Amino acid sequence: MTSPVHGSAGSHAAGTRTDDATATSSPRTGAPVLEVEDLRVEFRSRGPVVNAVNGVSYAIAPGETMAILGESGCGKSVSAQAIMGILDVPPAHITGAIRFEGRDMLQMGAEDQRKIRGPGVSMIFQDALSALNPVYSVGDQIGEMFRAHRGTSKKEAKDRAVELMDRVRIPAARQRVDDYPHQFSGGMRQRVMIAMALALDPKVLIADEPTTALDVTVQAQVMDLLKDLQRDTGMGLILITHDLGVVNEVADRVAVMYAGKVVETGTIDDVFTRPAHPYTRGLMSSIPVLDGKGQRLNPIVGAPPSLARIPPGCSFHPRCPMARRGDGGRPDCTSDVPPLREVAAGRRAACHYSEELLHG
Amino acid sequence: MGRYVARRLLLTIPVLIGASFLIFAMVYALPGDPIRALAGDRPLPAAVQAALRAEYNLDDPLLVQYGKYVLGLVQGDFGTDFSGRPVLQTISERLPVTATLTGVAIVFEIIIGIAAGVLAGLRRGSFFDNLVLVTTTLLVSIPVLVLGFVSQYVFGVRLGVVPVAGISEGLYSYLLPGLILAAISLAYVARLTRTSLADSLRADYVRTARAKGLDRRTVVVRHTLRNSLIPVVTFIGADIGSLLGGAIITESVFNIPGLGRAVFESVQRQEGAVVVGVITLLVFFFIFFNLVVDVLYAVLDPRIRYE
Ligand SMILES: Nc1ncnc2c1ncn2[C@@H]1O[C@H](COP(=O)(O)OP(=O)(O)O)[C@@H](O)[C@H]1O
Ligand SMILES: [Mg+2]
């Protein structure tokens, strides 16, 4: 049985290719399956408005891996949750466009949006122990995808759960299908999450720091697994992380986020070897420190701003070694907002002075 | 699990012995002479008083009295009250009354308490939520005695919608007393449900459930309610014991001939056999329902295991 989302997908995807010339996608992968355009998320509850996401745009093609990189608290998770449609509205207030196979999810009804979650876009979270429901067996929670979306019988859903557990390399899947999340190790639990997210062969998988909570050796295994699964299924992978090593190994492209904005995008090679934004350069040159959770970024003096009080102009200017006040008609970093613009072939950055960085 | 339950059941024996002895000692320590009080204004002949004393072992020291009582117990003899009625007969007559009253109270506690808590928890900050907060605060702060007499007057005497007292109208006569008995517990259940539900709604696994594309009903009922009701079920189970205790007051206010009133009256008459028998029975129920709760807890939450 195909879901209505799948049914209409082909025609919309065809339209996308011609409609959206601005979509940046890696040349080897073709038309984007998911495009985010000028995504903004505000939280309006008590206290000041929190501008968690301030105009994020990117596109992801089938089979492509895009890393989203940035210090914690810069809106990575919130933007992912906005795409998944799992933020509470209100207090969240979401604008922009999130096109899945050409259809804007923000314009469709809640029910249509819901049907995309799972078979269309799927998500795994950082801490699998708290992200899995403690009172249901892992087989139940994986099988629930089939029961809820396809009306599969309990027994068959359980068989499918065992297959998936095999596929994510959980040993003795048949014996362990009735076990509960707390009976698994951290790495195995994250595999359960992955099995659950991949149950309906999603077109896009969003992995929000999938290995941050794991031991270093287990991290590598889980990343390898994700990579293999992506190769087998051809899904697009959005990998949120602050681990530069992971990005370097698995991602095709990277979007660097700062204070709720994408400040630089490009291929891994370009961005890593010749950053076009001072913030990216800061990240790259930062010394990795071991803090028990593996390598972490230790970048740049100061801390990212509170998203309730983002500095005017370029939001990075208070921490930027290159920041300057405008003179002789040149842009002023403290008051002029730098747009995300094409600074070289296939790469964009949001800095008034990218060219100086790129060309010395 | 089976061994755990068996061990817990074995443990009830020393607890029951201890409890019964304590109560026995308390009745023994009450001031006044029960036999003389029994006779009222016209003193009984000294010979009769002595005979009664001997029959009820009232002149023996505490430990001897208690020993004789326990000796009777193990032979299935709960003793008799001063009018010669076997205590066991009193219990078997009055237990169904108290059980019905407590049962009605528990049903109110579950239905009203959980429903109010769930609705308030799902719509926090709404008018209904505030209504629940105010009402529950009032319920726990007004003494049961006051609540009982006022509601008895308003609903029974003025409005006449329920019987004023007694149990002559069957289950119907238990409605108001049951509600009053449940009042405080009900307020706690509503509060607990509300908080627990609000906590669960914020849980990561609820976010996951939404990310899985489950419909709202499944997210709320399957992935939120079940988890949030675990502490509520635990509370209700443990609360059955305090409802049984509360029945002593409620039964007196509404003139309901249950175990509670039997205790109340027997304490006044210093009828040790009745007081000790009934209260030990209540203690047993209390322990038993606590065990049921612990077992239920393990069934509801797979992380709990007893070895
Ligand atoms: N429900 C919410 N209400 C208000 N602020 C929120 C909410 N959720 C997230 N935020 C804020 O949004 C900002 C971005 O958070 P997040 O996306 O989790 O950052 P990260 O990049 O580390 O994933 C944080 O400052 C956080 O406090
Ligand atoms: Mg995050």
UniProtKB/TrEMBL annotation, chain A:
An annotated GO BP: peptide transport
Annotated ABC transporter domain residues: 34-284
Residue ranges the record marks as coiled coil: none
Top-rank lineage group of the source organism: Bacteria
Bilayer topology: Peripheral membrane protein
Disordered, as annotated region: 1-32
GO MF term (any one): ATP binding
Cellular component GO terms held in the UniProt record: plasma membrane
PROSITE patterns: ABC_TRANSPORTER_1, ABC_TRANSPORTER_2
UniProt cross-references to InterPro entries, sorted A to Z: AAA+_ATPase, ABC_Ni/Peptide_Import, ABC_transporter-like_ATP-bd, ABC_transporter-like_CS, Oligopep_ABC_C, P-loop_NTPase
Primary localization class, coarse: membrane
Species of origin: Pseudokineococcus marinus
Comp. bias regions, Low complexity: 13-24
Protein name (database record): ABC transporter ATP-binding protein
Subcellular location as annotated: Cell membrane
Similarity comment: Belongs to the ABC transporter superfamily.
Record keywords, A-Z: ATP-binding, Cell membrane, Membrane, Nucleotide-binding, Transport
From TrEMBL, chain B:
InterPro entries: BPD_transp_1_N, MetI-like, MetI-like_sf
Places the protein is found: Cell membrane
Keyword terms, alphabetized: Cell membrane, Membrane, Transmembrane, Transmembrane helix, Transport
GO cellular-component term (any): plasma membrane
Claim: Transport is one of the keywords in the record: yes
Pfam families: BPD_transp_1, BPD_transp_1_N
Keyword Membrane: yes
Domain of life: Bacteria
Membrane disposition: Multi-pass membrane protein
All copies of domain ABC transmembrane type-1, residue ranges: 95-297
Entry's transmembrane regions: 9-30, 95-119, 131-151, 171-190, 232-254, 274-300
Alphabetical GO biological process terms: transmembrane transport
Family as reported in the entry's similarity comment: Belongs to the binding-protein-dependent transport system permease family.
Name listed for the protein in its UniProt record: ABC transporter permease
